[in-house]
Amino acid sequence: MKISIDVDGKYRETSVTIHCKEVDDSIKEILDYLNAQRTEFIVGKKGEHQHILKPNHVHYFHSEGDQVMATTSDGVFKVKEKLYELEESLPFNTFIRLSKSVIANLYEISHFEPSFNGTLVHFHSGKKRICFKTLCRKIERRSKNE
Hints:
Blueprint: H1 25-38, E1 42-46, E2 49-53, E3 58-64, E4 67-72, E5 75-79, H2 83-89, E6 95-99, E7 102-105, E8 109-115, E9 118-123, E10 128-131, H3 133-145
């Protein structure tokens, strides 16, 4: 891997460009690192109060109608980001989409249980969410790569 840095006072902000043949795990790790610098915390609203949420403390994000909620051990918080924005900004090796309406923290998943309409994902908190078969296969593949 070749690394080039161009330092010049004419630049107003830092910009990172990656030239590669394909996006492999090493490139994804670099992107995760850069995204983690960008997403140090998320603001969640509970009642009239706004709380600072660290992404690694979030068990999962889910949509309820047109709102996105973050579930933590301290409760459920409304966040302003859309699920697709969270999916792009959160580390890919920590968060995974379980369904169209749920993004889960892999480190908060306890176990899986087969169910009639998919796989039931159990979290350490005791909460449960449905994961569809195709997305559960992604989790299996990702856990085998670690």
